[in-house]
């Protein structure tokens, strides 16, 4: 795995990018590149069962808060330095990113080729770049700004990292979040 890993935001020649691509976790997941801005996605390279640990997240580096980073504590962000940077957001996520155990865990059975997505506010208090959500989930949040801007009722639907749970609970009982779902 490279010490640094860059994510191409806008792809104008998907075929050329695909030819040069070398997966960071062969056999587990891979990036499917698509032309345009932010259209690429991470997909499963094999079937996964609900609650299965897909990968232990390693090789991260501390970095500034930015759209490619993941918040792992109240004031620390990391760069994933791998294909995991292509985990897209969904309000009906297929995986949880447990930053306490540094594991990516299947929320449900996932078939080979299925997208790997997580709920960004589960680890992000306030997004570096908010964005409108078009995931199409029945209970889509519509605007992804971070956990700070969501109700306890919304956050209770998801696995939530300990630092986000603590910050939500500090807002008071009406915003308290249930303990995280048990992970393997």
From TrEMBL:
This is Post-SET domain-containing protein. Residues 129-145 form the Post-SET domain. It comes from Linnemannia hyalina. Coiled coil: none annotated. Residues 27-121 form the SET domain. Keywords: Methyltransferase, S-adenosyl-L-methionine, Transferase. One of its GO terms (biological process) is methylation. It comes from the Eukaryota. Pfam families: SET. The keyword Ion transport does not apply. InterPro entries: Flavunoidine_N-MTase (IPR053201), Post-SET_dom (IPR003616), SET_dom (IPR001214), SET_dom_sf (IPR046341). GO terms for molecular function: methyltransferase activity.
């Amino acid at each position: 795995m490279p010490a640094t890993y860059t994510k191409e935001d806008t792809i104008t020649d998907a075929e050329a990018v695909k030819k040069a691509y070398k997966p960071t976790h062969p056999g587990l997941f891979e990036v499917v590149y698509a032309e345009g801005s932010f259209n690429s996605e991470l997909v499963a390279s094999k079937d996964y069962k609900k609650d299965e640990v897909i990968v232990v997240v390693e090789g991260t580096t501390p970095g500034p808060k930015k759209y490619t980073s993941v918040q792992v504590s109240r004031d620390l962000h990391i760069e994933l330095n791998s294909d995991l940077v292509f985990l897209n957001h969904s309000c009906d996520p297929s995986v949880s990113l447990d930053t306490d155990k540094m594991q990516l865990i299947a929320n449900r059975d996932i078939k080979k080729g299925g997208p790997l997505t997580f709920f960004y506010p589960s680890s992000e208090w306030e997004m570096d770049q908010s964005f409108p959500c078009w995931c199409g989930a029945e209970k889509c949040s519509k605007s992804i700004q971070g956990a700070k801007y969501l109700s306890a009722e919304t956050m209770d639907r998801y696995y939530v990292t300990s630092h986000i749970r603590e910050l939500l609970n500090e807002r008071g009982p009406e915003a308290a979040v249930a303990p995280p779902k048990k992970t393997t």
